[in-house]
Design a protein that fits this description.
The chain is α/β, with parallel strands linked by helices. It has 13 helices and 15 strands. A 5-stranded mixed sheet has the order 5-4-3-6-10, sandwiched between helices. It binds zinc ion.
């Protein structure tokens, strides 16, 4: 795919704003240094970001002798960005200003039996009404929505959501009609939103080759190169959980055998613990069961220690395959299973990786746990809405004039 000057401009714009959100107020000169762009390029972008209402000048910085420098900040008084995380048991909403400060947080409980698109849309409508009430008259710049499963981003379609057995649901159109929305909506799955979150606000900022490994009920990887989310030809990149490690292995949710997910997804971890402990583990309340496993591991209980060792070994096989193909400089482990069991898994994982990762790739590699206290799925969904809004930069400044 060819990069146009517009693409490069947008990429530079993302880079400038990511640094500004991370560390404001600051000057054009500081941003130029942090982004490796010239002061002239940064000044040019900043002028357009100011015209777009995304950035404001907030004062002057006096530096030794020279002219005082203008200080910049994201425009907190501008419109709001909304992130929505739609899942089997909840719909969570967060609204942010452009400094990414949370303006309000809403959660709708969803019953497992509510699996029709209309039922989820009802919850979104209720939640959005509450969000709008919080926002008062503040305009909404865009809404990012994270859905489970496979998503066609351009068409706004839920191609396949295994938890609800949805096939080709035109969710974006349904949502826009149901809520009578006149703002842009950006649909994607949690793998992509969580990676966008890491790029904008997490460990991925400034990292050129990033892999975000999501460990939860399902598993997958989000990839980003040069600060851009990598989607693949049909937004299906990162379905690492369904890479086969043994064709004769255990059955996976996808209907195939021996996928990585069938070894290190939450149900597989709990099943393994049940086998090693010689008693069944309640898989229904899997988050609670996973916490019990983590406590048992801390207490040094034999079956829990052996479960962690076995899972980490299998995870190392999957992560090593990924690292050998992608050669990332950073792998971030995230997802709710990482939140509960990451501390136990990481040292074991790091112990096993050298057995399977090629030397050159290993030397360049860092692996870490996601330590963000913020909900990266929702924040990342809002980041996709922010990226959409920033595309308007090509319509302001010198580009809007003939
Ligand atoms: Zn599978």
């Amino acid at each position: 795919m060819k990069s146009t000057s517009r693409d490069i401009r947008i990429r530079n714009c993302f880079s400038v704003l990511r640094h500004l959100i991370a560390d404001y107020p600051t000057s054009r000169q500081y941003l130029a240094r942090e982004t490796d762009l010239s002061v002239a390029t940064v000044s040019n972008l900043v002028s357009d970001l100011i015209e777009l209402g995304v950035v404001v000048e907030v004062g002057l910085e006096r530096s030794g002798g020279g002219r005082p420098r203008a200080l910049l900040a994201p425009n907190a008084g501008s419109g709001a960005l909304i992130g929505i995380d739609v899942a089997s048991t909840y719909v969570k909403f967060e609204a942010y200003d452009l400094t990414l400060t949370v303006l309000c947080r809403i959660e709708e409980h969803v019953d497992l039996s509510e699996d029709m698109p209309e039922q989820l849309l009802d919850h979104i409508a209720t939640g959005m009404a509450a969000v709008r009430e919080h926002l008062g008259g503040r305009p909404i710049l865009g809404i990012g929505v994270s859905l489970p499963g496979q998503v066609d981003v351009a068409g706004g379609i839920s191609v396949f959501a295994p938890n609800w057995n949805w096939h080709d649901v035109a969710f974006k159109r349904l949502l826009t009609e149901r809520l009578e929305l006149d703002v842009p909506v950006y649909l994607d799955n949690s793998l992509k939103t969580v990676t966008a979150g890491e790029l904008w606000f997490g460990d991925g900022r400034g990292v050129d080759r990033l892999a975000v490994v999501l460990l939860g009920t399902g598993v997958g990887v989000g990839l980003a190169f040069g600060g851009d989310l990598y989607r693949g030809a049909s937004n299906s990149a990162g379905e690492w959980g369904h890479a086969t490690v043994d064709p004769d292995g255990p059955r996976c949710r996808c209907g195939r055998n021996g996928c990585i997910e069938a070894y290190v997804g939450a149900p597989a971890i709990l099943r393994r613990w049940g086998e090693l402990a010689g008693r069944p583990v309640e898989e229904q309340a899997q988050e609670k069961a996973m916490e019990t496993l983590a406590q048992a591991w801390k207490a040094g209980e034999d079956s829990a220690v052996r479960t962690v060792e076995a899972i980490a070994r299998d995870l190392a096989v999957g992560v090593a395959n990924l690292v050998n193909i992608v050669n990332p400089e950073l792998v971030v482990l995230t997802g709710w299973v990482t939140g509960v069991l990451g501390e136990a898994l990481l040292p074991e994982l790091e112990r096993h990786l050298p057995e399977r990762v090629l030397n050159a790739a290993l030397k360049a590699l860092r692996v870490k746990l996601d330590e963000q206290s913020r909900n990266m799925v929702i924040l990342g969904a809002a980041a996709l809405a922010l990226e959409g809004h920033l595309n308007l930069i090509n319509t302001v400044g010198s580009r809007s004039r003939p």
